[in-house]
Amino acid sequence: MAPSPIRFRGLSGARALYDGARVEECARLETIDVTLTARTGHIRLHGKGDEVRTVPLPSAAREQLAAWLTERGLQAGPLWPGQRGPLSASGITQVVPAIGDDAGLPGLRPHRIRHTYATRLRESGADPAQIQALLGHSSIETSARYFRVGAAEQAAVVDQTSSRKCLFLNAGVASSW
To answer: Is the separation of the CB atoms in 92 and 13 below 8 Å?
Structure first.
C-alpha cells in the first residue's frame, strides 16, 4: 500500500529536519527553495534574522523530496501545503511525533532530529565551522556543543590509542616501571 499524501509530506518534512533545518525554516520552505537534479540537490533555508543558507541534500533526501514533489505537484507555493494554508511550525511539531511512533522512536521531536544530524556530522569528521554553516548557527560556540564527548566515546578513544604499538614499551622501557 502506498503512503498517503499526508505521510509523504510528513516524511519529507522530517527529512528536511534531519538535513539541518529548524522547524521554522521547514515551515517557510517554498517549492522554489528546492533544487533537485539526478546527482545533486539542495534546499535554501530562510533562517533566523532573515539569514539565508543553502544546505546540500544527500541522495536519500533528494529521493524523498522528489517523491513528495511528484505527489504535491510542481506548482509554486509552500512546500508543505495543508487544508487551510501552509503547514505551520506548530503543525510540523505535531506531525513529527507520529512519524517517530511509526518508526519505533516514541517521543521524537523536531529538534532531536536536527541534533542527531549535527551529531552525525561530527561523528563523520565535520569540523565546527562546517557544522556551524550547515546548521545556520551565528556563533561557533553554539556548534561546539556537538563536540562534547561522553564517557563511552572517551573510553573508546583511549582503548584505540592504547592498543597501538608503543615504541618505548616495546623497547623494554616498561620493564623498569
So the answer is: yes
Residue 74 lies in a domain: yes
Among candidate residues 9, 15, 22, 62, the one labeled active-site is 22
Q: Which of the following is catalytic: 9, 28, 62, 114? A: 114
Rounded (10°) CA dihedral 7, 8, 13, 17: 90
In this prediction the pTM is 0.74
Question: Which pLDDT tens digit goes with each residue over 30-61?
Answer: 999 999 998 999 999 998 888 899 999 988 88
Gap between the Cα atoms of 12 and 96, Å rounded: 11
Active site residue 42: no
| CATH number, position 83 | 1.10.443.10
Close Cβ partners of 139 (under 8 Å, ≥ 6 residues apart)? 132
101-110: list long-range contacts, CB under 8 Å, 24+ apart.
110/17, 110/22, 110/23, 110/26
